[in-house]
Amino acid sequence: MFEGFFSRKNGGDREADANAPPDKPERVRPSIGLALGGGAARGFAHIGVIRTLAAHGIVPDVIVGTSIGAVVGGCYAAGQLDNLEDWARSLSVRSILSYLDISLSGSGLIGGGRLASKMSEQLQDTRIETLPMRFAAIATEFNTGHEIWLTRGRLADALRASYALPGIFPPVKIGGRWLVDGALVNPVPVSAARALGARVVIAVNLNADLFGRGTIIADHGSDQTDEPPPPGDQLHGLRAVFGREKSLRRKLFGDHGRPGIPTVMVEAFNVMQDRITRARLAGDPPDVLISPRLGTIGWFDFHRNKDAITVGVEAAEKALETVNEAIDSLSQPGDSAGNVGGGK
Predict the structure, then answer these.
(1) Terminal Cα distance for the chain, rounded
(2) What amino acid positions are annotated as catalytic residues?
(3) Cα 78–Cα 79–Cα 85 angle in degrees, nearest 5
(4) Between residues 246 and 86, which one has the greater pLDDT?
(5) What is the pLDDT at residue 295?
(6) Beta-sheet pairing, 32-36 with 200-204
(7) What are the pLDDT digits (tens) for 208-264?
(8) What confidence tens digit (pLDDT) does each residue in 181-197 have?
(9) Tens of pLDDT along 267-307?
(10) What's the count of helices (H) and strands (E) in the chain, helices before strands?
């Protein structure tokens, strides 16, 4: 009697095992790429974005950056993000001025040597090809308009070329080419991240909240509120010397509501970058677009570093669900060894 009982029980267990659903195979996540856009001081938001993604286990296999995006991405790839963040948080208006080696004799208003020395001090002779993940800094060959992907050589040199804003910083010569800021051709380099092997591309656009750009004013002309043109320089002697100095200061920093040379250049660059960004993102959209709302933080507001980092954290946290959905949807089944499709 008991033998039959145990026999039926064992048979029932075997039947249950046969009907049990098979174990789900492990899923292998796709390669992840970060495309970090340009935006000068607004770029400290990239630090907050990267910190948040990493805290939730989202570590990129590919990083591509333009301008400040290249700086933050390159430092992260080189294991120097902590040092970069410490330096960023220490910046004040006074300390920022110490890096501005003004030069009126070169091809940029700022020589850039002091800032480059600080970066080289941290990165030393780190080479792009030795980084633990694929990396590219985007630059522009200024006399041809070629989009240059810097994927080898000294990392510090590549970063300096990528942020060489025309007229502000001088061009950088690398491999026989004179290079300037990559935002001239690819402000948020989604295409480069895909080309370097990223299956899921997370892009960070720092300038999405610059509302009002790109509209059309269909009816405009002069009116009585227009200021007359400034008079020519008719001063002589000592008055001419000090007058010209005052005139130069006015041209550099602006006066009575009239913008100075750097402001005009940056704002013109902003308009151009916004147009190019919208066009390129429409043609090659990322899987996830993170757009930190940086509000009134301007390109040269490096002293507002903490605000920018915090905004980056908040923007990344809001995008986490979308990021995880994109990763899950493109994950593929694999075996216990992590081979896609159960291959060996």
Answers:
(1) 50
(2) 67, 181
(3) 110
(4) 86
(5) 87
(6) parallel
(7) 887 556 677 788 888 777 766 655 555 455 444 444 445 545 555 556 567 776 677
(8) 999 999 999 999 999 99
(9) 787 788 888 998 999 999 999 999 999 988 988 889 999 99
(10) 11, 10
Among 38-42, 84-88, 107-111, where is mean pLDDT lowest? 107-111
Strand segments, DSSP code E, in the chain are 27-28, 32-36, 62-66, 134-141, 147-150, 172-174, 177-181, 200-204, 288-290, 332-333
- Could you count the other beta carbons within 10 Å of the beta carbon of residue 304? 18
Q: Decide the pairing of beta strands 62-66 and 147-150.
A: unpaired
74 neighbors 65 (Cβ within 8 angstroms): yes
Closest CA relative to residue 269, chosen from 96, 36, 35, 38 = 38
Alpha-carbon distance 313 to 153, whole Å? 31
- Residue 227, classed as helix, strand or coil, is coil
Q: Is the dihedral of CA 162, 163, 164, 165 positive or negative?
A: positive
Q: pTM of the predicted model, to two decimals?
A: 0.81
The 8-class DSSP code of residue 341 comes to T
DSSP per-residue string spanning 118-183: HHHHHHTT-BGGGSSSEEEEEEEETTT--EEEE-SSBHHHHHHHHT--BBTB--EEETTEEEEEGG
Query: What are the tokens at 47?
Result: 């630090």
